[in-house]
């Protein structure tokens, strides 16, 4: 509870030299005191619980409007919340009530603000008249709902959003309706301002938030009133001057006196309004603009922006602008965003630019830096603000300032890129001189042509030439007309330059063609490039029409110009590649409707010439895709294009077969020219075979001969082999497509099966090639073929394809795995490097990307069960060593394999650890040190593997048990190299296996322990040398918590209960903690840990007497003297998950010694367990005591503490009485008192940079 002496009893308005308001006690009626605000805890508003002290409306208060809606007995809060009545009618009703009895009406308004804060209580008329401010505040705090931290302005949902709007509208309309008389009665406004000022200084967040919003909206309404008064005073003064300047005969003295009297009244009213505004500004704003709550700070900044824009003569000066400038350093993006939007409203009006010069010079650097803000919304608004600053004056922003915004056009966040694109357009393209207006509208000398050149220059200077699509997308919204001027772009490329005009360089022409292609793609696809969009959105009808119009225009323009462009740049591979992508966006119907067939013929001739001239893969694939786009059977041009394609391919295939015969006849010493001719022709055929069906030319036979000859001779050029492998792969895929359609004959299925198996064997043989590129190609094609022709091929009802299923044999699996180990898991330096540091880095990144693709292709075979899962052991063991390069791929592979088969995945993981252990033994010998980095690395890998099993031990129970079984068998598999009596060779592996012991269920630990004892001898159990430590540590890891399952449940419940008490928020009321239910829930959860054998009795958990329970349970589990130690290790044939039962044997001397040792170990474990139980119980008791102390007072979720220091405003002479901070909900009273005073410094709200900002 907040003490009364901590609360202010009076709220004094700050004052200046010229305007001053007396304290609230001076404004009160002699018999009636203003309602004072209080400090308390926020709570959730509950409708219908406002009965205490609820105001009963005075007779005559009810009017027809409210009566019609059944609201005659509702409070103001409920009326505004329902939102069914017009705000004007509600305000008019309140004004009528105020004229009847202003105390009753003011009480209703006070309760309106109290209830809007979510407070259950209400101020009664008796309290309003007789109680002091502090007493009212205390009363409201006591009745505040402590069960919830919500209040109306923090609640979600459309109803509460509408309520917020209605709240603000009510205040605005109230002031507007009272602006001519009531606000000047020195009672209503003084009472309201005093109330809101007090509430705004409350420690309760709900009071502070609500009153600040109300005060700021009240201030905005008063600013509007002051503005109207100023306008009326100017009009009155003008009328007075005009009347006084008349001649004596025409002058009306009565009118002059009337105007003087009116001006005097307006001046008095304006002084009164200024006093009110000063009171709100200095009593509320200067404290709350740096409040601990970001929402409150945002409200203040948003409203001061409205004041400066609405009444710039009074507020647009450095005394008010400085608050916005300082707050731009706020740590919360929400507040920074409000600062920028407030400034945008000011910079948008160019008439105000002169008043913003000092502010701009002082805070320009901060605005520029906010363009890189971590909050994307803030960055967008900062760039928009800089655009407005740029429009106001070109000299404000330096070249460095502009360059910091230019590069953002390549941002992946589209709103930032669009804002930067608009800034770029305004800076470079929006300034036109008088000489530019006289330029022609079309052609090389038009205005757009110059702007296009500027765009090209910018694109080249940015040195990000691969991202032309991002530049076009950034400028599309503001410069779409420029980017759609394809006629000017074509003119710049085809027309000769005029005398004195500088022609485009080759590099500039390449950039222009790329920008032109990106603009065409943007116009036809109507979505951002990859990496910038959030998915395809539904286009509007207008957008669809624009898209169709643009596509038609593109076809009409480029159908004519594209053949000319290809003819001019036919030898430039990069230009031709971009130009050949344009037909993909054509409306092919226009070739017929527009009678452009001759241009189509010209285009086909140019494509044919390009194919014959170039051997570059990108160019050939672009030609192939162009033919694919033009060969559409839906259009009439299909026959013409198909004939041209067939002629081209006939020539190329015939040429290839002819050259191949000559090439193969040359034997072991082929001519280089012949090899080049074969390679170039094969490249063209392969590029076209990717998108076109060439099966009728029987390319499989010729390519297979070529590949077979390369294996026999061993000197085949690697590029020929690579493209022959790719072409053969395409042949098989096209044949598979025909067979899958069901239109093929049975013989074709058999032929395809033979071809596929022969080709896979060929690729396997090429895995041993000398050339790395050939091996990579063969490996990639093999992985794809094995995936395609796996058992998955019969899915979706395609059982007829069962003969095509191909499963790799062990030899092929071994070759694939060896390729991965030899060519993927290598160091960066082993992969070769290029000259130059920058090229070297780029080459390393490209090589790593290639190796990642190879590994992913093989892991796919593991996931889809194409190769045996055990082969993944060689992959998984590389997890730690190559974590940075392939960690994500290996981890995803482990996850997928676990989903397929948990047990087999566990066996694969333990196999990988065994392989690493064997490798370590082969390197270091059997007498290695377990502290070496190699052994520690294997143990760390085991720990990482253990973490991948997650927290649900029931799901992984069988897998973990199988893992331990295989690990134990491996540890005792090899005999001791030291002879009889020495530790087994792999015994140290148990130290690695112990990393998985924590994943065993308690009952399973006993089973695993018994399985371990099958492999142990009596002498092993007595050994204590260092070489036997792995066995000792592993046994201890299994016995921890396994000796007494029931006692483990007790301990587990205690520890879990303690954890829950730390994480769960405890409510203040002790009755709400249901201890019996918690106990029962813990017991039910503990059932997971209990053994499933029916012979074990589950003892109820008695938290009140832990030591007694522990003693009883421990005694019940002690070994009897007649149970020998040897009996524990008796071999059994029972299943591994069933605990082995001890057998009775004759008691000898060794048995007695073993029993004594077992007793000693059992007693030590009992002592440790009892100590843990006592620790848990003492900790739980301390936790309970702490909760009781916290429950002695209501938990205030947001506590606002006042600093004793006063921060002085150097310019304004403002007194900062408090510095308010909300502490986290979990802080108790003791922790609050231990906080340092400097925690309440403004630096806790704003960045360090704001402290260095000097005032104006």
UniProtKB/TrEMBL annotation:
One of its GO terms (cellular component) is chromosome, centromeric region. PROSITE patterns: SCD. Residues 285-370 form the SCD domain. Residues 226-279 form a coiled coil. InterPro entries: ARM-type_fold, Cohesin_Scc3/SA, HEAT_SCC3-SA, SCD, STAG. Keywords: Cell cycle, Cell division, Chromosome, Chromosome partition, Coiled coil, Nucleus. It comes from the Eukaryota. Residues 1-67, 1051-1089, 1215-1234 are annotated as: Disordered. The keyword Transport does not apply. Its main location: nucleus. One of its GO terms (biological process) is cell division. GO terms for molecular function: chromatin binding. It is found in: Nucleus; Chromosome; Chromosome, Centromere. Residues 36-45 have a biased composition (Basic residues). Part of the cohesin complex which is composed of a heterodimer between a SMC1 protein (SMC1A or SMC1B) and SMC3, which are attached via their hinge domain, and RAD21 which link them at their heads, and one STAG protein. Component of cohesin complex, a complex required for the cohesion of sister chromatids after DNA replication. The cohesin complex apparently forms a large proteinaceous ring within which sister chromatids can be trapped. At anaphase, the complex is cleaved and dissociates from chromatin, allowing sister chromatids to segregate. PANTHER family: COHESIN SUBUNIT SA-2, STROMAL ANTIGEN. Belongs to the SCC3 family. This is Cohesin subunit SA. The lineage of its organism: Eukaryota, Metazoa, Chordata, Craniata, Vertebrata.
């Amino acid at each position: 509870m907040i003490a009364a002496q901590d609360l202010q009893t009076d709220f004094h308005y700050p004052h200046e030299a010229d305007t001053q308001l007396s304290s609230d006690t001076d404004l009160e009626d002699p018999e009636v005191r203003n309602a004072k605000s209080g400090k308390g805890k926020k709570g959730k508003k509950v409708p219908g619980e406002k009965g205490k002290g609820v105001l009963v409306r005075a007779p005559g208060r009810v009017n027809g409007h409210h009566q019609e809606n059944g609201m005659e007995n509702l409070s103001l809060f409920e009326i505004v919340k329902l939102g069914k009545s017009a705000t004007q009618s509600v305000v008019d009703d309140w004004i009528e009530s105020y004229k009847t009895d202003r105390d009753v009406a003011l009480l209703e308004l006070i309760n309106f603000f109290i209830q809007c804060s979510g407070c259950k209580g209400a101020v009664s008329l008796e309290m309003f008249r007789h109680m002091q401010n502090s007493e009212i505040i205390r009363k409201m705090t006591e009745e505040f709902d402590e069960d919830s931290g919500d209040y109306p302005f923090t609640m979600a949902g459309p109803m509460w959003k509408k309520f917020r709007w209605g709240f603000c509208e009510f205040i605005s309309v109230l002031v507007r309706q009272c602006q001519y008389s009531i606000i000047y009665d020195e009672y209503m406004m003084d009472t309201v301002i005093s109330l809101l000022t007090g509430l705004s200084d409350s420690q309760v967040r709900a009071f502070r938030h609500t009153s600040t919003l109300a005060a700021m909206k009240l201030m905005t309404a008063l600013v509007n009133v002051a503005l109207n008064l100023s306008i009326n005073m100017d009009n009155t003064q003008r009328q007075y001057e005009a009347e006084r300047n008349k001649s004596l005969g025409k002058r009306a003295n009565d009118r002059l006196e009337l105007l003087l009297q009116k001006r005097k009244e307006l001046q008095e009213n304006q002084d009164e309004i200024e006093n009110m505004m000063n009171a709100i500004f200095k009593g509320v704003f200067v404290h709350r603009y740096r409040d601990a709550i970001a929402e409150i700070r945002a409200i203040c900044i948003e409203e001061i922006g409205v004041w400066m824009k609405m009444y710039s003569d009074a507020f647009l000066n450095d005394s008010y602008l400085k608050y916005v400038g300082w707050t731009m350093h706020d740590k919360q993006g929400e507040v920074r965003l409000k600062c920028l939007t407030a400034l945008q409203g000011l910079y948008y009006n160019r008439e105000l630019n002169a008043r913003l010069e000092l502010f701009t010079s002082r805070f320009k650097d901060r605005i520029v830096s906010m363009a890189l803000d971590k909050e994307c919304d803030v960055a967008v608004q900062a760039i928009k603000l800089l655009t407005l600053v740029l429009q106001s004056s070109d000299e404000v922003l330096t070249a460095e300032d502009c360059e910091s915004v230019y590069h953002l056009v390549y941002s992946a966040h589209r709103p930032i890129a669009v804002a930067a694109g608009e800034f770029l357009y305004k800076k470079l393209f929006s300034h036109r001189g008088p000489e530019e207006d006289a330029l022609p509208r079309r052609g090389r000398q038009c205005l757009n042509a110059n702007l296009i050149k500027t765009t090209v220059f910018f694109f080249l200077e940015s040195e990000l030439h691969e991202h032309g699509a991002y530049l076009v997308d950034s400028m599309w919204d503001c410069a779409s007309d420029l980017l759609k001027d394809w006629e000017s772009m074509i003119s710049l490329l085809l027309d000769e330059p005029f005398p004195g005009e500088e022609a485009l360089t080759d590099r500039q022409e390449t950039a222009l063609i790329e920008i032109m292609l990106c603009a065409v793609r943007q116009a036809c696809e109507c979505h951002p490039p990859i990496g910038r969009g959030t998915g395809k959105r539904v286009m509007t009808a207008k957008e669809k029409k624009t898209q169709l119009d643009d596509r038609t225009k593109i076809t009409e323009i480029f159908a004519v110009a594209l053949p000319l462009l290809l003819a001019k740049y036919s030898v430039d591979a990069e230009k031709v590649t971009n130009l050949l992508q344009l037909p993909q966006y054509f409306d092919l119907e226009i070739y017929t409707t527009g009678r452009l067939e001759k241009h189509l013929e010209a285009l086909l001739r140019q494509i044919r010439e390009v194919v014959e001239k170039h051997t570059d893969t990108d160019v050939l694939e672009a030609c192939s895709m162009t033919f694919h786009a033009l060969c559409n059977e839906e259009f009439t041009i299909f026959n013409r294009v198909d004939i041209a394609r067939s002629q081209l391919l006939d020539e190329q295939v015939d040429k290839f077969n002819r050259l191949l015969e000559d090439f193969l006849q040359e034997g072991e010493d082929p001519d280089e020219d012949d090899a080049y001719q074969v390679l170039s022709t094969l490249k063209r055929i392969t590029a076209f075979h990717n998108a076109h069906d060439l099966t009728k030319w029987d390319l499989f036979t010729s390519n297979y001969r070529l590949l077979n000859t390369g294996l026999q001779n061993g000197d085949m050029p690697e590029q020929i082999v690579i493209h022959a492998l790719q072409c053969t792969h395409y042949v098989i895929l096209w044949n598979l497509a025909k067979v899958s359609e069901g239109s093929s004959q049975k013989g074709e299925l058999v032929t395809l099966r033979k071809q596929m198996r022969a080709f896979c064997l060929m690729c396997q043989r090429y895995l041993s090639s000398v050339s790395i590129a050939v091996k990579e190609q063969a490996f990639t094609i093999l992985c794809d073929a094995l995936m395609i022709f796996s058992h998955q091929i019969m899915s979706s009802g395609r059982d007829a394809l069962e003969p095509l299923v191909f499963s790799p044999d062990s030899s092929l699996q071994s070759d694939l795995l060896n390729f991965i180990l030899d060519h993927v898991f290598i160091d960066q330096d082993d992969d070769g490097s290029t000259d130059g540091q920058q090229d070297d880095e780029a080459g390393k990144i490209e090589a790593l990307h290639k190796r990642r693709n190879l590994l992913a292709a093989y892991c796919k075979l593991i996931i889809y069960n194409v190769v045996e899962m055990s082969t993944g052991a060689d992959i998984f063991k590389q997890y730690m060593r190559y974590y940075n390069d392939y960690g994500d791929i290996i981890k995803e592979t482990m996850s997928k394999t676990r989903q397929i088969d948990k047990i087999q995945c566990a066996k694969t993981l333990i196999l990988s650890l065994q392989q690493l252990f064997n490798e370590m033994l082969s390197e270091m010998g059997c007498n290695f040190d377990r502290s070496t980095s190699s052994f520690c690395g294997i143990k760390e890998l085991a720990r990482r593997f253990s973490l991948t099993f997650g927290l649900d031990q029931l799901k992984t129970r069988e897998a973990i048990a199988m893992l331990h079984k295989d690990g134990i068998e491996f540890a005792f598999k090899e005999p001791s190299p030291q002879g009889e009596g020495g530790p087994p060779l792999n015994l140290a592996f148990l130290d690695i296996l112990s990393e998985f012991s924590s994943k065993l269920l308690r009952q399973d630990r006993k089973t695993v322990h018994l399985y371990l004892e099958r492999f142990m001898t009596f002498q092993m159990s007595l050994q204590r040398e260092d070489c036997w430590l792995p066995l000792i540590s592993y046994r201890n890891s299994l016995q921890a918590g396994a000796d007494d399952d029931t006692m483990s449940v007790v301990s587990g419940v205690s520890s879990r209960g303690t954890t829950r008490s730390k994480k769960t928020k405890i409510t203040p009321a002790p009755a709400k903690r249901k201890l019996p239910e918690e106990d029962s829930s813990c017991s039910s959860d503990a059932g997971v840990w209990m053994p499933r054998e029916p012979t074990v009795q589950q003892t109820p958990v008695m938290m009140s007497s832990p030591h007694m329970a522990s003693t009883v349970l421990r005694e019940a589990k002690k070994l009897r003297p007649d149970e020998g130690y040897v009996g524990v290790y008796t071999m059994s044939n029972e299943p591994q998950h069933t605990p082995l039962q001890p057998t009775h044997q004759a008691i000898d001397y060794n048995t007695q010694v073993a029993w004594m040792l077992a007793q000693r170990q059992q007693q030590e474990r009992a002592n440790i367990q009892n100590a843990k139980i006592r620790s848990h119980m003492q900790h739980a008791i301390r936790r309970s005591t702490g909760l009781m102390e916290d429950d002695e007072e209501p938990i205030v979720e947001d506590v606002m503490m006042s600093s004793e220091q006063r921060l002085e405003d150097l310019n304004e002479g403002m007194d900062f009485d408090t510095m308010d901070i909300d502490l986290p909900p979990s802080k108790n009273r003791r922790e609050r008192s231990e906080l340092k005073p400097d925690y309440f410094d403004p630096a806790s709200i704003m960045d360090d940079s704001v402290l260095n900002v000097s005032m104006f």
